[in-house]
Amino acid sequence: MGRQIPPLSAVRVFEAAARHLNFTRAAEELAMTQAAVSYQVRMIEDRLGTPLFVRTGRRVSLSPAGQRLAPQVSAAFDLLDEAFAKARQTEGGVLTISAAPGVAAGWLGPRLARFQLAKPDIAVRLLASHELVDFARDEVDVGIRIGHGDWPGLRAVELFPAEFTPMCSPAYLERMGPFTDPAQLLDTLRMNSDDIWWRAWFSQVGTAIPDDFTRRSIHVDSQVIEGMAAMAGEGLAMLTPRFWPFELATGRLVQLFPHVGRGGSFWLVYPEHRHNAAKVKAFREWLMGEVAATA
């Protein structure tokens, strides 16, 4: 059997009237008219079949039934208030972000301090992983993914294109270069030659690749390590310029050709039902501001 509770709006009016012992003050607190307060109280009395207030002229006091009911109703509203306060704390508590190591270390991580300063009530937990988060299982609020924005059940907000181009250290360029034709890169040592970005870039510049293209390669598990290995002079890396601005500006990395390939975009993703969650909304608005500032 379902709960036999009068409408909560009426119960709320009774609680306020019982607390103030004054219908006018209850009406002011709830932004209602005194007549509306009287109507809601009478609705509960009719359901219970007994009066809750004793009216003497302009004064009201609780009837025996009202005296028994009022403390329990107030205690129930206190529990509700505590529950919603905890929910608000959760919304403003910890924001957990999942992102691939490249975007986490090269773009998002260095900017998170600004978000923390802007939203000091929200703590940030950044998980750098290639694994696609399962929002139904993992305790993650938002993720950053590469693709075309088509993930069922998730809201996807486009951030910026996924761009890539070959880079190396000045020492490696001096030792192996100069490179004037993309085909020359086929004879060099490359990081992660089996990465689809290599094939995409060569295809976009019109260079055919041989069958043994992946033979000469160093395999590492993230763009962060690729970039570090390239700066150490170990070979060529296919990197995202947006993630290495300082290294390019200071000459620690050299972009070998002007062409920058593109394959999909980076997206902010989260479950559809979390779109209006306070901490998700705050992070989304801040993140889009960062994207616009660095466009």
UniProtKB/TrEMBL annotation:
InterPro entries according to UniProt: LysR-type_TF_proteobact-type (IPR058163), LysR_HTH_N (IPR000847), LysR_subst-bd (IPR005119), WH-like_DNA-bd_sf (IPR036388), WH_DNA-bd_sf (IPR036390)
GO biological process: DNA-templated transcription
GO molecular function ontology, one term from the record: sequence-specific DNA binding
Domain of life: Bacteria
Keyword check for Acetylation: no
Residue ranges constituting the HTH lysR-type domain according to the UniProt record: 6-63
SUPFAM superfamilies on file: Periplasmic binding protein-like II (SSF53850), Winged helix' DNA-binding domain (SSF46785)
Extent of the signal sequence: none
Family matches, as Pfam families: HTH_1, LysR_substrate
Keyword list, A-Z: DNA-binding, Transcription, Transcription regulation
Recorded family membership: Belongs to the LysR transcriptional regulatory family.
Descriptive protein name: LysR family transcriptional regulator
Native source species: Rhizorhabdus dicambivorans
